[in-house]
Batch of 2 targets.
Target 1
Amino acid sequence: MIGNVIVGQSGGPTAVINSSLAGVYKTAKDKGVKKVYGMLNGIQGLLEERYIELEQELKSQVEVELLKRTPSSYLGSCRYKLPDAKDNSEVYDKIFQVLKKLEVEYFFYIGGNDSMDTIMKLSKYAASIGSNIRFMGVPKTIDNDLEATDHTPGYGSAAKYIAGTTKELIRDSLVYDQKNLTIIEIMGRNVGWLTGAAALSKGDDCEGPDMIFLPELAFDMDDFMLKLEQLQKVKKSVVIAISEGIHLADGRYVCELVDRTKYTDNFGHTLLSGSGNYLANKVSTEFGCKARAIELNTIQRSASHLASLVDINEAFLVGGAAVSAAIAGETGKMIILKRISTSPYQCITDVYDINKIANLEKKIPAGWIGEDGISVTNEFLDYARPLIQGELTPYMVDGLPRHLVYSKKKQ
Amino acid sequence: MIGNVIVGQSGGPTAVINSSLAGVYKTAKDKGVKKVYGMLNGIQGLLEERYIELEQELKSQVEVELLKRTPSSYLGSCRYKLPDAKDNSEVYDKIFQVLKKLEVEYFFYIGGNDSMDTIMKLSKYAASIGSNIRFMGVPKTIDNDLEATDHTPGYGSAAKYIAGTTKELIRDSLVYDQKNLTIIEIMGRNVGWLTGAAALSKGDDCEGPDMIFLPELAFDMDDFMLKLEQLQKVKKSVVIAISEGIHLADGRYVCELVDRTKYTDNFGHTLLSGSGNYLANKVSTEFGCKARAIELNTIQRSASHLASLVDINEAFLVGGAAVSAAIAGETGKMIILKRISTSPYQCITDVYDINKIANLEKKIPAGWIGEDGISVTNEFLDYARPLIQGELTPYMVDGLPRHLVYSKKKQ
């Protein structure tokens, strides 16, 4: 009999983070694991001994399939950073005490950079106390900013939603025969993988966004206004995609240009506005044309109704591969995706030393950003397009996609 | 041989306005109409003699099916209000001159209140000059505010998108084990049909929004803060749906509460903020909890990737019924939908005098709003739920829904 498994989810939700959970669960059960525990709200919940037995929730393959179609983190999440063991050994004592009680031998954590930091610290601590519990990281983040892996599960689905929504918004912006600007504000504060995905909307039936502003480059306000003015001479409807993290050369975010001391309501509350709203207001004031900012907001990370099948399958795969690797003896590693062929697209999994991944951030390579500074190259598109392919039809009930919720806390 | 047809689209786009266009086109061709013209940018384009021959664009049933899956107004739109004929007969002369040149006998206009005003004026003018061109209105608006008809095509799809997105946002809001408020800001300035649709998200797998604020009722700021405070005592994650048009008892919109003289950036530009942002800022300042406003924005009216099949079919139906009625001799009428059975849901079409519809606005009946003032009743849900049923699978090409664009202006 193989020892018990515990799995947790951490950081921001994605449309496919639960497919990785399904991959861990299904593979563990297929390999003969007796019990698979799910920690509620990640490591923070584990410290409070909050967990569920997944066998009680995933009673048939129907629930597993529903789980793959459920967005956000089924088990709940946290943003808890483990202290260094030398500063606070009590936290580690508590964690290992709970794991011992549950007879856990394999620990999986689905998340991004911070979560990999957790795996790194726990595996080091285990080695230091001679514990043979194995700790494995399962990559997840819509931002696609993890090092070593070709891409991260979660990115493809967010990219598909962004590209699909951009297509619809471009069509929407074309209806009136008058000058107008639409600004689509996209997540990704420091890296532009998601913003660049808006360019995937370009095709026979869509021109794509007219300009793309990535956080990898400094944003020049005068240059932006000039380029927009030139564009508006040749086309009435202009659509641009911006990262929420666009910033000036001096490092200030565009959304910080507002004088916050003035920026209050009648009750003295400070009002915040995003970069898109800032630019829309500036353009409508200076150019006198209609300008609208649309923040895709958290919808882009939880839109499982338009998830990518490639992404869902790869999310499941990295979860399953983590279980296989751990049972084969690995610990302190993260599963990565390696692209072994671009045409046709093929990716396989591998394991990678977590020390070389945690707390790093992968930006778009300079060569994948257009020389004009407002586009992405074909290399970027060839990289991203395979990741948005295919759909997994939601289970529709009474007109809406059905989700799986765990029985303790129906919502 | 039946005389030629011309069809136009007007007002804001919807996910299914093109299905009505397909219904007009397909029915006209089936009935033996030789030519079906499409006016570009509605009546405004017609005045400039901008139109296309739909036979050149819809060459096979594949294009017709693609048109049904294409959001926004395929022919472009306008917000042009016809002057009264006694004030400006030149405009009418021009229109009838173009129609005569094109040998048009049937004129169809797909739109909302303002578009029905256009049909009313044109049919009256035709009668006054002894023209036998027939003018018919085809209802369209996501707002669902047209009188006489049970509901308007466009509403069901927007409602489905709103309910589906609300479900995903509620799941997203639940991941962290900490106090937070999510405000979903929904279209519909004067009527709450769309905002109420957020309640359709409630079911076995979702609690639905905790409070709903409709524009039919005055918004009381103190009462809102009190209710929120009470809610936050029993649950950490609160999600509310508000109409973009919520207003105080004195008529001021909530988004107008900002002192705009103070509300400028470093360059002196006035900054605007929506009602959702206003409330989120107020709550986070006064209650010290995380609060986020999410504007569904124009995405909700153009999200054809999650359109309702019932809505698409009814949009097609009202287009076709307008053609049948016009050929049968009707003019100056709008097609309406009549619900003849609720369980099972059945709707049929009828014709209705446009003078009794144009320029009126249908609000939610008082009895369909909960006595607590922050919910909708089961009557509302029973009314709206049949309208979001079913899906029409998009034609997916390279990972994204394919749209139809007309050949003159590829976009």
Target 2
Amino acid sequence: MMMMHRWRRSGDFIRSACKSLSSFRQKHNSMSPSVTGFMNRYESKVNTFEPNAWSHQYRSFGSSSSSSALKVKRNPLFSSLESKDVSFFKEILGERNVVEDEERLEIANTDWMKKYKGCSKLMLLPKNTEEVSQILKYCDSRSLAVVPQGGNTGLVGGSVPVFDEVIINVGLMNKVLSFDEVSGVLVCEAGCILENLATFLDTKGFVMPLDLGAKGSCHIGGNVSTNAGGLRLIRYGSLHGTVLGLEAVKANGNVLDMLGTLRKDNTGYDLKHLFIGSEGSLGIVTKVSILTQPKLSSVNLAFIACKDFLSCQVLNHLDGVRNPVSSSENFYILIETTGSGETYDREKLEAFLLKSLEQGLVSDGVIAQDINQASSFWRIREGITEALQKAGACYKYDLSLPVEEIYNIVNDLRGRLGNLANVMGYGHLGDGNLHLNISAAEYNDKLLGLIEPYVYEWTSKHRGSISAEHGLGVMKANEILYSKSPETVS
Amino acid sequence: MMMMHRWRRSGDFIRSACKSLSSFRQKHNSMSPSVTGFMNRYESKVNTFEPNAWSHQYRSFGSSSSSSALKVKRNPLFSSLESKDVSFFKEILGERNVVEDEERLEIANTDWMKKYKGCSKLMLLPKNTEEVSQILKYCDSRSLAVVPQGGNTGLVGGSVPVFDEVIINVGLMNKVLSFDEVSGVLVCEAGCILENLATFLDTKGFVMPLDLGAKGSCHIGGNVSTNAGGLRLIRYGSLHGTVLGLEAVKANGNVLDMLGTLRKDNTGYDLKHLFIGSEGSLGIVTKVSILTQPKLSSVNLAFIACKDFLSCQVLNHLDGVRNPVSSSENFYILIETTGSGETYDREKLEAFLLKSLEQGLVSDGVIAQDINQASSFWRIREGITEALQKAGACYKYDLSLPVEEIYNIVNDLRGRLGNLANVMGYGHLGDGNLHLNISAAEYNDKLLGLIEPYVYEWTSKHRGSISAEHGLGVMKANEILYSKSPETVS
């Protein structure tokens, strides 16, 4: 009760912190498909590395110790690009949508983390499904490896070439095809940028069921292909629940029309779910049908502090950010509620927080009073990745664990690593999704050896997932058995 | 405004209409798997019937005209049951769980609608996954066809044998394995009856994310295998969103452990989604992990009438049921809301209804005042199937359509059938799910010829689904191309 004065009332702000922070939103998990269909663009056996067999190193950032999963070699069954191939693509796509420019290729070859880098000599920009189909059919016939690419905001090396794959970027396929204001069903092309869809829906009084830090760059097709989680999962559920249909092109060029717009459809296997989260390995998603939600007028945001569970030191590295609560605790929680009854919603959140205070669960907290304050709260949460990058080398793991376990792995790892590195955990408390970050001055083999496979083994032992929302990508393709049974993988 | 007096206040009732109506809840869509794995238990070509080739008729109710999709013949590659097989099963399951009793087999061979009937001579009752695995491994080696069975409440002939398949009923696998009061994740065996799970959760302060008329009999394994929709879909989403994991046994006896309990897990293909709604054709679901929801204390139920869109004549056939609103309109809607703030929730619903009245969208309505009134409202909605059965023969279709189309097909069909039959539509307005019912004095070929394939073609033309929530079963196995593209089916 004594701290009740700290629960300041919020005005009628709408959460907009994200919108003003576009400069560092070009990040996070999004598109990361690795390869189409029937052929692997690299050879690797699950959990069996061939350290002496690989001919290239494609990391351009950090040392060779930034990850242990990159020991793969190019599959010799794939052809190499020839000038006749380029000519063919120019014929079907037009000159300007066949990119050979080195500067543009440099960007397309490099992932957001600058940790993974390919050496593709060609990026194709199809304008529609038919062109994607023609490209893939041709590449299939010529045994040319391809990598689908969207906003290239993934964190696991899935959206860039590993070797010299042809990059198929769907960025020009960015049209909204239909929106039904009764059902809230949006149908659009895969290359639509998530934030653009959000802006479009805002004019209709709707919101996307997902939101994530990378929304200024990531594509809806990539979101679907990687089963992006993000900030609204606990409110609106996963994409397996909200994606109603999709269209995809298989590696042989065949188009799979699964673009339903129905809430219920029980007619045989629901194949679209295989594509959600398959990271492009089954085909390229070209269109998406998704259930959007009515926009709610009342938004409240609370920033609260607790004495235990989680340590958070990122404030040191973000300019102009201050701790919203006076005390410095070990664990902070950001809670956003949305509803339609402003007074009621605010009082409900306040009552919840007051009760938490009285029960000793919370030691301090504040409810945002206006848009600026809300922005500053979100700036902290969304700036964590940026802050960690500034600290030097950073090993990142995206884990799902039973909620009661998510701080134990942080503690265990601190004990294991001692003063070799700083171990930090943040993420999505309601989802049991921990972003485990280990920052050090530089990448080194000794440190990596202490982290991997320890983190994966720890996660597997607790029946967690070694990839909650980022996907496997190149980084964890070989680690799948830590989270899936051999029978399932087979 | 003039009708505001009709919006009576509800007390603090908890919706419990369903609980008192268990006698006629033994129905509706639930378990309906058709066959395990790699072999078809019957031969049929999609959309190509072989009317002269089938050797049996398995319908015991209605004439041969109750459906056109049953023209299938037994696959000669399957063996027939021998006494050595029965001996083997008795050895691994024990005498009492190998059922040869004719009376019990009669029930297990017949579907709830009494429209589909098999002639199996054996029902097996495994007690755990290992026994299911042993059964399937043996049947695989002996080429014995099997049909998985749960509560046998499906409406499309999917949960009973077509010919002489061995029935594998999972009813003895009915244990709750774990429940996490923080995350709300329930893990249980496939044979748990939905209502028993609801009762268990009630003591913990949680509710199942699905509810349906058959809950007194249907099994959670069957719900998952048929992707049951039901009454809470618009509130909590489909099973693709709420089922977090499952365990299944393939036709060869291999166990697939996909029994995760995590909200987020992006490590490769999420195979469990293939099993959700696959009607047993990929394997037998043996365990389920599902996200349940906190029970909300404030429940409101409104029964409202509108002048247009839908005709509903079922009140004639239900004893002791009266129209809750004084006027007799063509279209009724039942709205149930749940929340945590009783006064606020009620006022919100009242304001919504008042606004709808003022705008002329609604012509009359009443909010339930107590449990009895709520029960009587639900009795009407849940008694529709029962009432239609009493009217004589009834052709039932379970369609998904764009919401604006769901009454057009009713109208079109009325025009087409004239006075040959009564055409009625009800269902789930928010989901676009129409239960289209055509009732007549008796089944006959002429009538069937006018209904099928007209209804399927109409649905396909409007990009609807010929099975919203019931599944394909035997009834619609051959009609899949009306709702899925050839490439997808292939």
